[in-house]
Structure formats: C-alpha cells, structure tokens
Amino acid sequence: MTKEVQMSIKMEAELRDQFMAAATQRDRPAAQIIRELMRLYIAQSEIPNALTAQTLAQSNKGEDVFTAINSSELFEQLGI
Questions:
Q1: Residue 66 in contact with residue 78, Cβ under 8 Å?
Q2: pLDDT class for 8, splitting at 50, 70, 90?
Q3: Apex 50 CA angle, 44 and 56, nearest 5
Q4: CA 68 to chain centre
Q5: Integer angstrom CA distances of residue 16 from 5, 26, 31, 70
Q6: Least confident span in 5-9, 16-20, 23-27, 62-66
Q7: Which stretch of DSSP H or E encloses residue 65?
Q8: Cis (ω within 30 of 0) for the bond into 29?
Q9: What does the H/E/C string look like for 15-57?
Q10: Which end of the chain is more exposed for a tag (fewer CB within 10 A), N or C?
Q11: CA 15 – CA 21 distance, rounded (Å)
Q12: What per-residue confidence (pLDDT) applies to 73?
C-alpha cells in the first residue's frame, strides 16, 4: 500500500481560484488533477523519454528510416 503524504504550495489567490473553478466545472477533485500533472511532468522530464528511446531503438534496427534527396521527397514518403 502506498503511503500518502500532504504537500502545501504557495500560489497566487487568483490562480488557485481559477484552478478550483476549472476542477469543479469538470467534477474532478483538485488533488487528482495535481497528481496527474505531476506524473505528466515527471514523464516528460525523463531523458530520453519513452517515445524518443523507442524511436532510437527502431532507427538502430533500420526500421522506419527514410532516405530522401530533399524535403519534398521526404514529405512525400511520409505522406505529409
């Protein structure tokens, strides 16, 4: 079982009020939103992140590698 702890942060009253109003409007507990934002921040802070690591691994295997003589040709290969 995970031990829960409390955390306090300082912020502008207006920011808090806007956040609480948005959470209430979506019927979501503020603490749940904060936890999700913290998890997202941690995930985005990983170096390399999961997508970058996956892309590098695929490139090393020669998967999803495109060769083009110019950007137009590359975009065409990618369907852009």
A1: yes
A2: very high
A3: 125
A4: 30
A5: 20, 15, 12, 50
A6: 62-66
A7: none
A8: no
A9: HHHHHHHHHHHCCCCHHHHHHHHHHHHHHHHCCCCHHHHHHHH
A10: N
A11: 10
A12: 92
In the chain, pLDDT over 90 holds for what percent of residues?
61
Q: Distance from CA of residue 2 to its chain's centroid?
A: 24
User: Which of 32, 11, 13 shows the shortest CA–CA distance to 23?
Assistant: 32
Retrieve residue 79's tokens.
Answer: 């369907």
Amino acid identity, position 66: F
Q: Domain spans of the chain?
A: 11-45, 50-80
